[in-house]
Please model this.
Amino acid sequence: MTAPITHWTNAQGYLVPIDKIKPIDKERNDLVLSIVEKAREEQQALRQLKKQMFEDIIAFIQLSAEQYQVQIGGKKGNVTLFSFDGKYKVLRQIQDSIKFDERLQAAKALIDQCIHNWTEGSNDNIRVLINDAFNVDKEGKISTSKVLGLRRLDIKDQDWQNAMDAISDSIIVVDSKAYVRIYERDDNGKYQPISLDFSNL
Model:
């Protein structure tokens, strides 16, 4: 037989006799626990919904591919699906989180050599752009988007091209996150998200 609970643990970790706890504090505790329980149930339901959505989308992509006697492997790639009337669309997006390995330092050295070799003073803007790209933030991280943005510069120089190759080779995918986003077209023809984020409801 389970012994009756006579004490609750407070936020400081101390045991407090239940009969010494004010009724309003008990009511507050019961309300919070009730909300948390409901939130956890909904969280689990959303996890299951997300899992089911991804499985359904993957199955449909494979079904569509089979119409052309091809097999599509893996789960990568962004896909947009529309309802027949175009009122709704579903997006599956795969977002990779990337970092750079030690070859990024080789790329920086090659880029520095380019700047040194080019005519002095004619590339001040590019110098600022490059220095900004390789600056670390407060957390000691280099901006991925800024470094990758250097590859979009149309510079016909072999050392520069080698540096861009080194940047490409230094990329490491450390994590991938998958998203499903659902939209409904409004009266103005614009797609508005059907939010599953509690704070946006």
Observations:
- The chain has a mean pLDDT of 83.
- Residues 106 and 166 are 7 Å apart (CA to CA).
- The longest strand covers residues 171-185.
